[in-house]
């Protein structure tokens, strides 16, 4: 019989701490034992303990604070995002019959309009080959690029970069960043322009965040993001491309339902 070597000490220590975190033995905000305490408890060197802590930090379970030791990260509130959110927002009536303003983001977050904030940056650009393919337009077509950072209760939750054909939005209120946030979001804007969306397509993938995304969304090390590429169509015509909607993966569950 072939002997199976013991797991390295740093992995065994990480397993023990991880189990205690997950079963509530170390609740969010609590400190882990000090390096000296872990060394004594497990009979290992400081380097081994630091390897175990680094592993947990890379998994997004703990964070090390200067002068404050190693602390269990608070678990972010997870929101469920379903495709029918587009239908729910599209059905909100306009005019005097309309209720409080809403968008797909406020619907997902279950927040009021006064709890919603949107940072935005607009620029004119031209379609690269990938965008041209998504729009089904020639390379070099002029587009409006809009980068948004979405906040719920002053916490950054999502980044999106979307594009609209300049010949559709140029000179309209949709191209004015001072008009944001716009009740109803992009759905309402396209309807305002006379092209109400009839179809929404999304492609979802996971990846590691860029340094800018990590900083903007205040993410812990080791947490991936969900990146959603979206197209909104009105009839056969692609009216909007979002490349991408970026959400920390530990803050979202994507729900999809198919009627058969």
Automatic annotation (TrEMBL):
Keywords: DNA-binding, Transcription, Transcription regulation. GO terms for biological process: negative regulation of DNA-templated transcription. GO terms for molecular function: DNA binding; DNA-binding transcription factor activity. The keyword Zinc-finger does not apply. Residues 7-75 form the HTH gntR-type domain. This is Transcriptional regulator.
